[in-house]
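Issue 218. Parser rejects a valid record. Input:
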Amino acid sequence: MTGPFLHRRMFRLAALILVGGAALFLGFDGMTKNWADLEVGARDPKLEAVVWTDTTQEAAVERTAKLLQSLPRWKVVAADPTSGTLHATHLTWLWRFVDDVHLRFSSMPGGIRITGQSRSRVGKGDLGQNARNLRELAAVLRQAR
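Output the parser choked on:
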C-alpha cells in the first residue's frame, strides 16, 4: 500500500487520534462515555425516540429487523416481536469495534414508540460513535415510516 491511499489512511488515523485525545483530555460531552440513548426528550433532536403510527409492536419489530439487515455493518442478533425488543450490532468502520444496540418497541395510542441504546463493548469512551449509530438508525426508521 503506497501512494495516495496510504496518505489518506494515515491522515484519517492521525486526525482521529488527535480528536480522540482532545476529547478525552477536555471531557467533551458524548465523546467520553461509551453509550448513547434514543429517547423521549433527547437534547439532540436526531436522538429523539421514533414514532410509527398505524402499526403493531410485532410488525414494527419485524420491519426494523429487515431494515437493519439491509444496512452495511449492521447485524440483527435477536428480535422478539412478542416482548417488543431487538438486539443488533454495529461494526465500526475504522477499527472494527462491535457496538451493541438494544431497541424497545412500546405501544402507545395510535402506534409504536421506538427507544433504545447503543453501547460499546470495550473502552471508556467512544468518540461519539454510539450516538452516530443511533442517528443513522433513527434516520432510516423515520424515512421508513
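Fixed in the parser; the record now loads. The longest strand covers residues 98-108.
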